[in-house]
């Protein structure tokens, strides 16, 4: 577009460009060239997209394997964050999630290093889960309850060990087998198995 009439927009634009330093114009041309090269490389975007899909596929395979591992042992379930979440959701349907919450609170308690925090945490856990008629009382025998009460006088990271072990055994013998037979877990295993079959058929 060219125009030599006074007040013409094209003339003003040309005059404005002419006033710019040569280095700015050169940089602008260089940037335009680089953008042009990138725009004509669709395979770059394809590679990025393919990489993302591969990573997503890998995560799905890992999670599928993990779901199937939960039925191998109760330990395998407790080692998995998603396994603990799924088990907790199941326990809620049976109104017994306090057992797992207590077990998790004990695991967190053991990591406490400060003696002051150890004592206050111990009292809080005891009042919430262990003492008679606690808001979220776990199902342990009277003897274990009393041993735990005595342990509070000199709270150490091991003061809930016996109560935690009893609660864990109860979950492993009682709730865990029902979880494995539950409709929610059966659905998860079917999905995990079908993903595994689909993967093998594509290799």
UniProtKB/TrEMBL annotation:
Protein name: Regulator of G-protein signaling 16
Superkingdom, natural source: Eukaryota
Gene name, Swiss-Prot/TrEMBL: Rgs16
A Pfam family of this chain: RGS
UniProt keyword Phosphoprotein present: yes
Species the sequence originates in: Herpetotheres cachinnans
Signal peptide coordinates: 1-19
Matching PANTHER family: REGULATOR OF G PROTEIN SIGNALING, REGULATOR OF G-PROTEIN SIGNALING 16
Boundaries of every RGS domain copy: 73-189
SUPFAM superfamilies xref list: Regulator of G-protein signaling, RGS
Assigned GO CC terms: membrane
Keywords noted in UniProt: GTPase activation, Lipoprotein, Membrane, Palmitate, Phosphoprotein, Signal, Signal transduction inhibitor
């Amino acid at each position: 577009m060219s125009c030599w009439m006074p007040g013409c927009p094209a003339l003003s634009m040309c005059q404005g460009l002419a006033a710019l330093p040569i280095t700015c114009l050169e940089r602008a041309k260089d940037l335009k060239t680089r953008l042009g090269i990138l725009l004509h490389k669709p395979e770059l975007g394809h590679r990025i997209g393919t990489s993302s899909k591969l990573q997503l596929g890998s995560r799905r395979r890992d999670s599928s394997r993990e779901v199937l591992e939960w039925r191998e042992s109760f330990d395998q379930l407790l080692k998995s964050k998603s396994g603990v979440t799924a088990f907790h959701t199941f326990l809620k349907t049976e109104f017994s999630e306090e057992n797992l919450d207590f077990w998790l609170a004990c695991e967190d308690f053991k990591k406490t290093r400060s003696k002051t925090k150890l004592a206050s945490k111990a009292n809080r856990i005891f009042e919430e889960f262990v003492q008679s008629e606690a808001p979220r009382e776990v199902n342990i025998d009277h003897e274990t309850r009393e041993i735990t009460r005595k342990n509070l006088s000199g709270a150490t990271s091991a003061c809930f060990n016996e109560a935690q072990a009893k609660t864990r055994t109860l979950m492993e013998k009682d709730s865990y087998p029902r979880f494995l037979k539950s409709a929610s877990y059966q659905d998860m295993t079917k999905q995990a198995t079908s993903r595994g079959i689909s993967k093998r058929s594509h290799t």
